[in-house]
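User: Can you help me understand a structure? I only have the sequence.
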Amino acid sequence: VVRDIAKDMDKNIATLQQLIPISEKEVNKFKQQLRVNSKFQPVILRSALTEEEIAIFSVNRYRFPGFAVNIRTERVYPLGSVAAHVIGYVGRIDTRDLERLGKNEYKGSTHVGKTGIERFYESRLHGKAGFKKVEMDAHSEPQRTLAEESPISGEDLFLSIDLALQIKAESLLQGQRGAIVALDPRNGEILAMVSVPMFDSNLFVNGISYKNYNALRDNPDRPLFNRALQGAYPPGSTIKPAAALVGLNNDTVTPKRSVYGRGFFQIPGTKHRYRCWKKTGHGHISLNRAIYQSCDVYFYDLAYRMGVEKYSAAMNQFGFGKKTGIDLPHERSGLMPTPAWKERRHKTSWYPGDTVNIGIGQGYWTASPLQLAHSTAIIAMRGQRMMPHVLRAVRVSRNLPEKIVSPQPLPSVIAEDRHWDSVIQGMVNVVHGPMGTAARRSGAGAKYRFAGKTGTAQVFGIAQNKTYNASKLAKRLHDHSLFVAFAPLENPTIAISVIVENGGGGSAVAAPLARELLDAYLLPKPVPTKTEEEGKESTEDKNNTEQKTK
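Assistant: Let's start by predicting it. Here is the structure, written out as tokens:
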């Protein structure tokens, strides 16, 4: 409706409501938009009309001056919830968007990126608005064009997401809560980023209903929350390879030096016992065995002797406690705790026991699944760091070739080759060694060699000398299950992290999922039959037809 042309607005709307359905909510929203838009600018009264409704209005249009049916392009997500947390969604522009982006640039625009890639690269996708300055007569009829500037269309963005791998990862977590991140350690490209449960991006394009939004918002499983990017989990034993390396770098440990693991660790002069997962202890244990058997006592001792300041600073080099810099909004930095942080946050001193706890990735330490995949990629590349990113290439015009986005290096983690060898061999033994924590479930029968590390993160604290029966606890109080890995061993092309919330032990739940994902990415794909190929082409044609550009 163009207000300057429409006559007796309320009467016309009431008459129109007798012909086609227009809710009072739509009318109220329309009147709100009238107040913020120019009287010469068309304002939407009702959208998504059926063909029958269009026909009914068309034959009655002469009765409604200033009312018209317009066709416009609309953002469509053909795959619905697939990669929804990465892609994000567009929604109708509101006043906060205009304040952030500028009213002049968005005159004539109705939608803007709200989350994900849609928001982060809004300026690339939107392009530049054009305008036409027209002289009108007293009857609002155009007389002549005074000035005109053509718009510049937005760019086409090509993501690094491997669609088949993304769908596979999402299916592996179906029915659970958790996250999976897979990236290429050579250049930082994100191959898959999964947060489950998910949501359908199409719900938000033209304004989500109160019913649908409340269902998503009030869902205790939090489908709108991007666990992969914003989740803050205790990393547990997945950090032990990195801890071993910083211990080697600081001469706190050596590959051959052993620690006597008797089932618990005690700070000198105290009686409190910090337990190992193996109650009977590991006996005399060196670095390699401490990694693949995940001896807690070894890493309690390492962190305590190194000291929290050195330990935390060294872990910062692996990306813990700070954002990775990925090209997605709302990334969380996690927490690599220090005495200064505790003093600011809790107004209390740092205790030696705090240091002992972070030695096994517990206590105050939290990390996102993205950070775990990133730190695993650093180990895979023996210290070389690349900033994770989702944008792979950009095309300014369909007549021009894609321009590949250059990977961005980050400061490297420096260590001697023999130290990398020791740490990586420990991770190899986790999945391929006869006594590794994940060998039987994730490494058996693999057609390639890979390196991994299990992890289990407690959800709640346990009193000294107490145990608990998981079968008697509510599911949401069960331990989180974690696993990190990279493959192939000699020339890594993928690094992954898996977390299953309240899944239990890492070797039992997360590790098998990771193995399936590695198989899906690394092993040859079966050759499709002619019928399957025809079906695939038909689906691709449909998707290409449905997908609209901004």
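Now, to help you interpret it: The radius of gyration is 29 Å. Residues 530-546 form the longest helix (17 residues). Let me know which part you'd like to focus on.
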